[in-house]
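Lay summary. Proteins are chains of building blocks that fold into shapes, and those shapes determine what they do. In this project we predict the shape from the chain. Here is one chain we studied, written as its sequence of building blocks.
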Amino acid sequence: MTVNRKDQIRALLKSIETGQTEAVAVVSTQTYIQHNPQTHDGSEGLAALFKSLSLRSPKVNIVRAFEDGEFVFGHTEYDFGSPRVGFEIFRFEDDLVVEHWDNIQPRQGPNVSGHTMVDGPTEAADLALTEANREIVRAFSDAVLVGQHLDTIAQFVDADLYIEHSPHSGDGLSALKAFLMSESGEGPVIRYDRNHRLLADGNFVLSVNEGFRDDVHSAIHDLYRLADGRIVEHWNTIEAIAPRSEWKNNNGKF
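And here is the predicted shape, written in a compact code that computers can read:
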């Protein structure tokens, strides 16, 4: 019987609510690498974190879960006393999780277009276009986000269909362009310096980036939905990277 990795990750994350550690058995006890700087390395550190979080009567909702080769990535809602939204990435070797990254921020919004940070389609489609969509987002990231060639944005984003879930912007190409150009106003000033990873499942692509938000060194995770070769929907989280002196492991955020 083939084990469904997405279901295993759903069970693992849901166990945060209960503090029960059985689902942590999917995590390798020998080789697990933790990239959350606030969590100790190894499966024991993860179990201890889940146990600690369970004391706060948390709520966990896995909104979306996708699979890309050895990776499972999810879009999640948390409430640890205050609502948060995050992206979780797990890397498998055989039947065990051996590596983990995340990016979590306080929940904000809805935005000016009425969208929350998590609503919208949840199931991957167009599976045959996975690699093509990955390359579209790669080109968008290189040209528009890191390269700051905003004059090329219409090549990648559907002006008529674009839906924005960031709490700091709204629907439409003009709103996105204004947000990326912003150096003042209501939203944060964001600078993309490097794309570290692109994970794709059909028409969804998660882009893992390093940059700055209001001059604070940050991880920026962007989830895109594509249709007919264009970006039509976007969700994100932005999390400040803790100073090195506060890290509980030495694996780095990325």
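What the prediction tells us: The CA atoms of residues 139 and 156 lie 8 Å apart.
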